[in-house]
Amino acid sequence: MPDFHLCAGFLSLTTAKASDWVAQLAERGILCDSRGDQLRFGPAPYVSKAQLHQALNVVEDLAKGLV
Question: What residue segments make up the domains of the chain, in order of their start?
Answer without folding.
Answer: 11-64
